[in-house]
Amino acid sequence: MTHEERQSRRLLVTGGAGFIGSNFTRYWCDRYPEDRVVVLDALTYAGNLSNLEGLADSGNFRFVRGNICDRPLLETLLAEENIDTVAHFAAESHVDRSILGPDAFIQTNVVGTFTLLEAFRNHLANRSEVDRCRFLHVSTDEVYGSLDPDDPPFCETTPYAPNSPYSASKAGSDHLARAYYHTYQVPTVITNCSNNYGPYHFPEKLIPLMCLNILLGKPLPVYGDGQNVRDWLYVIDHCCALDAVIHRGTLGETYNIGGNNEVKNIDLVRTLCRLMDEMAADLPVKPSETLITFVKDRPGHDRRYAIDSTKLQTSLGWEPSVTVEEGLRKTVQWYLNNEAWWKPLLSEEYQSYYAQMYG
Ligand code: NAD
Ligand code: DAU
To answer: What is the value of pTM for the model shown?
Structure first.
């Protein structure tokens, strides 16, 4: 389909001021300037308006501060913007915070997703043209639980076995998205993706936390023995996959998205140290590997994630394009260039979270 043949869309992007949501919003506005893009975000600690800087100038973009649990707000927005496509990113997303306090995870991830599905169902009941409408539910590989070293990667039929309050709440929201297709024909498509990294990543997560701690000369806290494995995907590759699923995905289906990049945490941290030592003009502690500190493990820490994305690759022609080495280099360079973005995030709230987590 060429750009000329393509019918424009009107998107509601929930959680569009967060890490992946803002990368997706930038990607979409750049690629499809003819589309209307409305971001709805509650601006929790993880939401950041500066992630969307520059977009306000485009006539087709609107930001609304609000909560996905607010049904009247959702109904008003869906109707007044005549939304045909929901890209649902809004969530509480950090496993460690879900262990410290699971309440917000149940509220946003389960109740919020339910509220959004209900509002969209009601919205579609009042529309005549529903064929091209979509509800993209963005989810995680963590719903499948943990793999042993020799297990095959997760595929779309792997049984759900979430191990943290975060992954359990995401699993609940996936089940709701699935049920709304089967029961009410709400046009849902679900994606389950592996660990993302790249620009605008909040520094509570492994990669940005390590980058900033290296820059600040602080200890690099590696949980347990550092042998846990994650499958890393550059965030723009994730956005391309979501683009394919929105345009060509089959309704009611699930698509796994992964980077084919399984890396042990300790190896990843060592790579970040090497890149920082090479690329940063000046570091308080060098070699930065000397900052690596093994700390108490995360409770219920999943040992290994790996994703089989054959279905997405064969049916929709997507594949990851950025290698880990290349993606990490770009990411390190981004944090080096964007101190003005990350410095304000090291707020009092962040320091108190950090102290609670790492002592
Ligand atoms: P994030 O924490 O960076 O961003 C979440 C955004 O949602 C923030 O802007 C926040 O303000 C907003 N939000 C939170 N609660 C809200 C509410 N009740 N109403 C409206 N907005 C609210 O998360 P992320 O890493 O960008 O993840 C986005 C989505 O992708 C999540 O659903 C997550 O489960 C999923 N996912 C993340 C990864 C990853 O590696 N980060 C991988 C796979 C899937
Ligand atoms: O797999 C997809 C998931 O990836 C997403 O659904 C989540 O939203 C996202 O946060 C991420 O979850 P993880 O728990 O895998 O990511 P995190 O960056 O928190 O941790 C990555 C690995 O690094 C994990 O094994 C725990 C470890 N870790 C993490 C931190 C923050 C450390 O060793 N030290 C740390 O300080």
So the answer is: 0.98
